[in-house]
């Protein structure tokens, strides 16, 4: 089963896809948006078809104490719209610290700020999806 992992932010959505066996995640792109689902629906549909997606994993940003704040609620709403639009299952996955971890990896690789900004979201999506895949094995 191929899974599409999404790191949903206010202006961008990082996208990652699993391999056919569900072992590894690969970051594939960053989608720019303005928190209007209809503006990205066709692009998501193309990804579903191109990669034969059967499920979504959406990062759920929780506060460090486990509560869900406004950004988490926005991700929950996004997940519901995904499910309604594409009739595919959606799992929400705790994404605490994934963007910070991705930033650390990129800093360790001595990547410039401009280059980090271009890849951070898809790398965070990859980390969310890989964490999900690892937990399900």
TrEMBL record:
BP term (GO), one: rRNA 5'-end processing
Family the UniProt entry places it in: Belongs to the YqgF HJR family.
Entry annotated with the keyword Hydrolase: yes
Name used for this protein in its record: Putative pre-16S rRNA nuclease
Enzyme class, spelled out: hydrolase
YqgF/RNase H-like domain sequence ranges: 1-102
A single GO cellular-component term on record: cytosol
Job of this protein: Could be a nuclease involved in processing of the 5'-end of pre-16S rRNA.
Localization of this protein: Cytoplasm
Keywords: Cytoplasm, Hydrolase, Nuclease, Ribosome biogenesis
Gene Ontology MF terms: hydrolase activity, acting on ester bonds; nuclease activity
Predominant cellular place of this UniProt entry's protein: cytoplasm
EC number: 3.1.-.-
Gene3D superfamilies registered for this protein in UniProt: YqgF/RNase H-like domain (3.30.420.140)
InterPro entries in alphabetical order: RNaseH-like_sf, YqgF, YqgF/RNaseH-like_dom, YqgF/RNaseH-like_dom_sf
């Amino acid at each position: 089963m191929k899974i599409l992992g999404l790191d949903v932010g206010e202006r961008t959505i990082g996208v990652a896809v699993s391999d056919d066996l569900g072992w590894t995640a690969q970051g594939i792109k960053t989608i720019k948006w303005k928190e209007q689902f209809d503006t990205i629906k066709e692009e998501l549909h193309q990804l579903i078809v191109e990669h034969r997606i059967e499920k979504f994993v959406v990062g759920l940003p929780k506060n460090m104490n486990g509560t869900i704040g406004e950004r988490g609620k926005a991700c929950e709403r996004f997940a519901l719209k995904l499910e309604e639009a594409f009739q595919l299952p959606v799992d929400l996955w705790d994404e605490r610290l994934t963007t910070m971890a991705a930033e650390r990896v990129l800093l360790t690789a001595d990547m410039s700020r401009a280059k980090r900004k271009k890849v951070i979201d898809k790398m965070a999506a990859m980390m969310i999806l890989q964490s999900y895949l690892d937990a399900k094995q």
